[in-house]
Amino acid sequence: MRYVFKILTGALVTIIIVSCTREWDEIAISSPDYRLQLIFNLEYGGVPYYKLNRNGSPVIRKSALGFVLNEMDDLDSNFILADNKIGEFNETWEQPWGEVREIENKYHELTVFLKEKSGLERKLNITFRLYNDGLGFRYEFPEQDNLKEFQVIDEKTQFITKANENAWWIPAYRRERYEYVHKKTSLAEMDTVHTPLTIETKDGLYLCIHEAALYDYPSMTIFRTDTNILACDLVPWKNGIKAYVKTPFNSPWRTIAVGEKPADLITNYLILNLNDTSKIEDVSWIEPAKYIGIWWMMHLGISTWESGPKHGATTENAIKYIDFAAKHGIKGVLVEGWNQGWDREWLDDGRVFSFTEAYPDFNLEKVVEYANSKGVEIVGHHETYGAHLNYEDQMEDAYKYYHDLGIRYLKTGYVSDKLEKDEWHHGQAGVRHYQNTVEMAAKYRIMMDIHEPVKDCGLRRTWPNLMTREGARGMEYNVWGGEGGNAPSHVPVLVFTRMLASPMDYTPGIFEMMLPSRPNNQVNTTLAKQLAYYVVIYSPLQMAADLPENYEGNPAFKFIEDVVCDWEDTKALDGEIGEFVTIVRKDRNSNDWYLGSITNEEPRQLAYSLKFLDKDIQYIAQIYADGKDADWKTNPYSINIYDKIVTSKDSIQVYLAPGGGQAIRFVAEKVVEEEE
């Protein structure tokens, strides 16, 4: 056996090729900073594997690649390495909106061109992109005579960790889709789970396994086949087929984010970088916004979605909300339950919904006209109850109707166990449908907020009108969740799991925590924590979810009036999964910064340097802190609001009550001269 080592001059990519009497057997590349190493193996029998090391130590041990096909020979062995290609890439690209304006996209790349040694000699390429903070790889099926159409029974991709690590996870294949409380267990105790899957290794690293650029393919869940052997499990069609594929075709990227501490995962942009650039040339109409809406009152039982004496979506109610929004500088008003179909047995058959016909007590045209006169926009709403074919039959008419009225924001919903009672939301059928809605919305210049979605995989880079999603156990579970509401630790877990995938419409801003109409439930936070959510939970469409009467006259509401939802920069200062997290963000359109810090049931006293502030500016820190006697369970309303003059040379103390939080707006006041 002879070993050949090659270095691509100028590309900073190390290629190791091991040669013997067989074809090339092993190729390795490093990340731009040389800390991560990706090794591709083609072993005896032409079986492909990959490994991921960090500083020479395993992160992902030798793991399988390939496919099991229906009524065809599998694509998991009998390969030779026909060729390989290496390279590097480095750019900085600008988001039209986002948690940061500019993102560095710097990686080293390896593509292996595999070909069956005998038989049909089918071709399969695998591309690996290695970043300083993670790996992405995908399968590429080129156009070829002997593989035009095929059915995937299984994808054999594995993620074999070094040991029986700890993980935070929610179960897959359950009725409520992604709306579960995360569990922390060892991998050996883990169920089949959704991604993002966050892992803490015994070496002190933090990993997040997910995927990017999910198109026309089922989403990936993770199935544990042994203690630390994790395998890709594609969500099937009802007939058991996982995916129907036509060549040429690229699979989604399988992604592994790597961080030295939990906060590193928050500002990891691997998933966005692996998506294509925007397909929408003119993005000037896509605007982040805050909104209120006719929504929380229905969860409280004060009003109903269906028509009748308690109907919430009336013209009269909409005008009241529009007046409140205009008074307080809130851009949008959501109206749920305005359209025909809520009265009938929609929970048995979602096909009853019409998306253009309003109830008699709601005049959409009049409401839009009144909103326009007040400088407010209406956020449209379409609930499908998973009858996605009925929705697609009406979709273009409904979107054109909104477009003609000037409605630019749309919230959709799929409150059902399965689509058409047959197919999983996150199978290939669902992925196709949700993509259809986004592309149709782009045609009519509509921005999307999807509830009960398929998980996000960074598609907002390619389709920036896809602004936010739910996809987790949200605020409404505090009202009717059987466990008495979301625990104080819930969001400190979501930040390091669900929110690593995309923006989330968590619907924060609840000021009445005790819920008089639901005496057995409570919103398990302090008032200051609800304010901190606007910084901690990133969403370009951010709701002030409570009733207007709970905001009027409350000085804490000023933070919701002031806080923005489009950012120049984001820094995760600190955090531990399920314990606490502190994040700061800079306004994209001013020099103001915002801080949000939240904790679980435990009180905390934290201290942070303000070196993230601009060095030549003096700021007024407008602080919304838990009161000394604040407690999520016994006294959630105690809040201390005060101002303090600070600069980047200062530090700040952050007190978090049990179940509490703190929100700060740093208002850029004046330029200060540096001392010589």
Describe what this molecule looks like in 3D:
The chain has 676 residues and is mostly beta strands. The protein folds into 2 domains: 2-273, Beta-galactosidase, Chain A, domain 5, CATH 2.70.98.10; 289-564, TIM Barrel (Alpha-Beta Barrel). It contains 12 helices and 38 strands. β27 (409-413), α7 (428-443) and β28 form a beta-alpha-beta unit. α4 (315-328) packs parallel to α5 (364-373) and α6 (388-405) runs parallel beside α7. Residues 1-23 have low confidence and may be disordered.
- Mind describing the biggest β-sheet? 10 strands, antiparallel
Counted beta strands: 38
* Contiguous uncertain segments of 5+ residues: 1-23
From the alpha carbons, calculate the radius of gyration and give it in angstroms. Answer: 26 Å
Please name the CATH architecture of the largest domain.
Alpha-Beta Barrel
If you consult CATH, what is the topology of the largest domain? Answer: TIM Barrel
- Shape by Cα distribution: globular
**Tally of distinct domains:** 2
- Beta fraction of the residues? 35-45%
Structural class: mainly beta
Overall pLDDT metric: 94
For the terminal residues, how far apart are their CA atoms? 66 Å
Instruction: Write down the CATH class of the largest domain.
Output: Alpha Beta
Number of helices: 12
Assign a percent range to the helix content: 10-25%
CATH superfamily of the largest domain: Aldolase class I
